[in-house]
Amino acid sequence: MIKLVLLRHGESVWNKENRFTGWIDVDLSKKGMIDAKKAGELLNSKGYTFDLAFTSYLRRAIRTLWIVLDEMDLMWIPVLSSWRLNEKHYGVIQGLNKSELASKYGEKQILLWRRSFNVKPPNLDRTDKRYSGNELKYSTLNDKDIPLSESLEDTFKRFLPYWFKEIEPAIKSGKKVLIVAHGNSLRAIIKYIDKLSDEEIIDVNIPTAIPLVYELDENLNPISKYYLGDPKKIKKALNNVINQGKLYL
User: Among residues of the chain, what percentage have pLDDT more than 90?
Assistant: First the structure.
């Protein structure tokens, strides 16, 4: 049996402020750093170890991974970073408060922007200071690879080639793999592994800094999956994610 561990980064500064973050490179909050440390401690206490880790180009995921590996005395293992594991790009609403947008556009529209498979927010303009093409980390990418906005479907399509090229071969070779990424890039992975429909993925939410363990067969078909930790805390964390797009928190 193969085990694959997925972990959403700890609370970021903009998670704390209930803002759409997307490709904006904000850091972890103090709570996020503490939660990442707890995730590392939990994985270590349960006897987990890893040979290889994958993460995105965004510091909230990278720093979470650093903290986890430090707690597990695994900072020496190889780490592969890719923009293909970045969060979904939220276009022109990046940086805006989710509850304030809900009061303007309605909770239903916010839910569509956050969780639907094929609805994306309005595009960001390339002249906007938030345009990711201005950042050195993306200087080797073609303009067509730098999104102006994305749906989960777009995120899914950019993630899949990386799964087939790097992640799947590593897992099948016998390496114990940890992926630290974002709510929507992890939802893309879950949609693929669990073979979820476009409608089923809407109800999938990922709490921050709680390890999700997949048990897979040799063909990487899921046998079971479960979060590590206290069920009450996990339920509370999931509800916090669900409520982010509500008018009042």
Answer: 83
Catalytic-role residue among 11, 71, 87, 150 = 87
Domain around 145: 2-224
Question: CATH number for the domain including 141?
Answer: 3.40.50.1240
**Least confidently predicted of 41-50, 53-62, 128-137, 232-241:** 232-241
Alpha helices in the chain (DSSP H): 13-16, 30-45, 59-71, 98-105, 107-115, 152-162, 168-172, 183-194, 231-242
Cα distance between residue 87 and residue 188, in whole Å = 10
Q: Catalytic one among 9, 11, 89, 150? A: 9
Per the structure, the count of domains in the chain is: 1
In a domain, residue 243? The reply is: no
pLDDT value, residue 17: 93
> pLDDT (tens digit, 9 = 90+) per residue, 62-121?
999 999 999 999 999 999 999 999 999 999 999 999 889 988 889 889 888 988 899 999
Q: Is there a catalytic annotation at residue 17? A: no
CA-nearest of 189, 187, 220 to 204 is 187
Contacts of 228 (CB under 8 A, 6+ apart): 42, 43, 46, 210, 211, 212, 213
89 is a catalytic site residue: no
16 lies in some domain: yes
